[in-house]
Amino acid sequence: MYFVHRLVPVLALVLLTGLISACATTPVDEDAAVPDPYEDLNRSFYAFNNALDRAIIAPAADVYVTVTPAPVRTGVGNFFDNLGYPTVFINAFLQGKFEQAFEDLGRFLFNSTFGLGGLIDFSSGVGLERHDEDFGQTLAVWGFDPGIYHDLPLIGPKTSSEAVAIPADMVTDVLFYASSSVAFPLGLLRLVNKRANLDSAIKLRDETALDPYVFQREAYLQHRAYLIHDGDPPRDDLLAMQPSE
Amino acid sequence: MTHARTFYRWHRRLVGAGLGVLLLGGLSLAATGAGMSAPASAVDRFHATLLEVMQNADSLGFPGRQERLSPVIREAFDLPFIVKVVLGRYWRELPQTDRQRIIDTFTRLTIATYAARFDGFSGEAFELVGEKPMKKGRMRVRTRLVRPGDEAVQLDYVLQEEAGRWSIVNVVANGVSDLSLKRADYGSIMKKQGFDLLVEKLEAQVAALGKGGG
Fold it and tell me: Cβ contacts (< 8 Å) between B175 and chain A: which residues?
């Protein structure tokens, strides 16, 4: 099948993550808010990603925002959200969230048809709200989440269960099955649109954080816990851990 | 579990707690308006001030917003407690003068941050979603910031009571705890560069916010 060749870079990435896991790690920082055994390596990939972002991706996103009116950008965002939505209902099923999974399937079908191929978010208007599920969350729900943090080149922050899940998420993405001549430009557009949407979060990080790498790691891991527990994480009460006042 | 189901479960607990308070003398219920609990009222008052500042953002300007927010933030948040939690084990080793210094810097930074962020109004609204009691008598008040044309932000506040007054000790936006973020961030600087440099960087942030404001 012609898309098999795309699995090669993905498998290489999974192998890389595995090799990283096998490599010597930084000594465990007991004071760290979360264990980050690969901190040194993560920091170097973080610096690489930032440099790449500043040089190429952010400027491209700026041009995109300048050239594209907001409603069109919304349409583009909706289109790509919809292309990636099979991942959501498949993983909702895998996690046993059957009611949600049927709603999500409905959302995908309505948006693809009444929403004109996903350009219009018809489903939100009829009460089928957007959910966020992926195979990394499924693995975590199944109990396979050592909770180790990786900041990967080009890909950015991922927990170890997410990194392992990358091939599975790719295979449930509609764009994966398109021919290269279609998938490549669409993939670029998706990247630039996503970067434009992340702009305020990245600016917030750069303005607020004293140590942006740590800030990103902490924010990312908390956000993953929020997604895995669907907005209701069992809080390990930071305040309850304090010595008596 | 849907948010609606969870909220009604909390609502029942809240009614039970409310009846308990009534039996004990009910002063706190009498003090709040519209049947809201004391911690929810504290959050509601804070949101009302934020909305007022947002709606008058341009006429106030950054200095005006800072001035308006300063007493409100000092009262709504227990900033010395927050700084203590943020610095974690480093707090114990700090002399009183340094403690006072960083509390002062952090207070001005918090005020400046809110004044810089809430610099306009485009139809935003805060909605009270529910409450959940936590350990050590603390309360988690769940709210939502609704923005037209944008996704709502789940905004949870953790409050604790001292001498009859409820104050905010943590803000959790879409599951991301501000206290945890700052603890990791400031802790990293404390560990690698020390206290003086931490304060210097925070002061630099205050100055940058002041320059960027308008």
Answer: 222-223, 225-227, 231, 233
